[in-house]
Write a structure and sequence with these properties.
With 82 residues, the chain is mainly α. The chain contains 4 helices and no strands. It has one domain. Helix 1 packs across helix 3. The radius of gyration is 14 Å and the shape is globular.
Length: 82
């Protein structure tokens, strides 16, 4: 999931390809962008439905994606209660 979201955010013209320009701009933003620019990029990764808001389900999905990457044994899923 995390890789898919990163791909979607880096594919600036939404043609299902990351060309050299898309790649360079994304890397430059991550390495030299302002804190605000980097936070916007991270927000876009979490905003799976591209609605400008992050739903509980999207947040849970991303947390679980991070947890599965950082753990040798997949831990139980995160569930956010109301």
């Amino acid at each position: 999931m995390l890789g898919e979201r990163m791909f979607s955010v880096c594919d600036r013209d939404h043609d299902n390809w990351i060309n050299f320009e898309d790649f360079v701009l994304s890397v430059a933003l991550l390495t030299h962008g302002t804190k605000d620019d980097r936070l916007k990029l991270i927000f876009q990764m979490y905003d799976v439905e591209n609605k400008g808001v992050i739903t509980r389900g999207e947040l849970e999905m991303m947390f679980n994606s991070f947890r599965s990457i950082h753990s040798e044994d997949t831990p139980p899923s995160v569930k956010i209660n109301q």
